[in-house]
Backbone:
């Protein structure tokens, strides 16, 4: 088995944040959240990282992030651009929004060739998540079904005080296997707990504490790339007409389809660690304080890449 590869989704546009949050420093030393994730991944055993970016941010990304990681990891760059579509399909005129996380990972097909983990560039997952991903990916292989893994975070550890977030609400069976993901696009803190709304905040539905949610922290076997590739034209056929400017090919949607077809089993490893992210500018102070505290407790050195 080839050693697992870390794949990082870093081509997002940060519309709610108001900037490229994947390159925004969160400590006085200039580290980004992505630095901490890659550092944790390296400690867990990952030796290669693939950054999925856009050509528009290539120079800055390589200068700010790539240059300090390259001496310590095998680094590859791939580019998610809207013209990278299957033969016979073209990007709709006026479309700016990327085609989603499934399309992003598919853009890395040529440079992965091994079991791989997928994370967001702008989320902090904690050391345990990467240790569990690496352990699973080095000890499990496909059999009569695909064998994937997802790190599930408890809902109460993943919401912000500063607005709404989108999360994949997970249903998990008694064996710890994922049975369903339901994307909720408006989740907020309501009456001290998490709740979602389907009508722009007119009514709210409580989400119980400890409910596992997907934060795009996945582990896949190599065959997942084939599934992404084979299903993408069908997605485009169905959605380019109905929602040409905003449709997105999401990783969880592909996973859900494979579960429904009984082609995959997804092990959910629940993490009780606190998620940190910068969905909104107002989140940054909380994240910086958390990083400062973790350094004080010697969970991280002052300089990660030295």
Residues:
């Amino acid at each position: 088995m080839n050693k697992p590869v870390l794949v990082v989704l870093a081509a997002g546009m940060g519309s709610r944040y108001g900037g490229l949050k994947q390159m925004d420093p969160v400590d006085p030393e200039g580290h980004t959240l992505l630095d901490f994730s890659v550092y944790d991944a390296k400690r867990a055993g990952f030796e290669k990282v693939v950054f999925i970016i856009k050509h528009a941010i290539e120079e800055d990304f390589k200068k700010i992030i790539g240059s300090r990681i390259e001496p310590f990891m095998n680094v590859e760059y791939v580019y998610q651009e809207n013209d990278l579509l299957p033969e016979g399909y073209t990007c709709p005129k006026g479309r700016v929004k990327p085609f989603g996380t499934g399309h992003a990972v598919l853009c890395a097909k040529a440079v992965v060739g091994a079991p791989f983990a997928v994370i967001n560039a702008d989320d902090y997952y904690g050391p345990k998540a990467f240790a569990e991903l690496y352990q699973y990916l080095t000890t499990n292989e496909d059999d009569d079904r695909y064998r994937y893994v997802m790190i599930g975070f408890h809902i109460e550890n993943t919401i912000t005080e500063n607005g709404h977030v989108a999360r994949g609400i997970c249903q998990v069976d008694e064996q710890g296997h994922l049975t369903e993901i339901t994307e909720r696009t408006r989740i907020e803190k309501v009456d001290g707990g998490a709740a979602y709304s389907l009508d722009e905040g007119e009514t709210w539905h409580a989400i119980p504490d400890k409910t596992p949610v997907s934060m795009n922290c996945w582990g896949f076997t190599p065959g997942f790339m084939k599934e992404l590739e084979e299903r993408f034209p069908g997605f485009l056929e169905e959605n380019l007409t109905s929602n040409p400017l905003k449709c997105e090919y999401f990783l969880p949607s592909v996973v859900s389809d494979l579960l429904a077809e009984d082609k995959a089993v997804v092990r959910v490893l629940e993490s009780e660690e606190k998620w940190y992210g910068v969905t909104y500018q107002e989140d940054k102070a909380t994240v910086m304080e958390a990083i400062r505290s973790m350094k004080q407790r010697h969970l991280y050195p002052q300089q990660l890449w030295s």
Observations:
- The mean pLDDT is 93.
- Residues 223-242 form the longest helix (20 residues).
- Residues 5-151+211-245+273-296 form a domain with the Spore Coat Polysaccharide Biosynthesis Protein SpsA; Chain A fold (CATH 3.90.550.10).
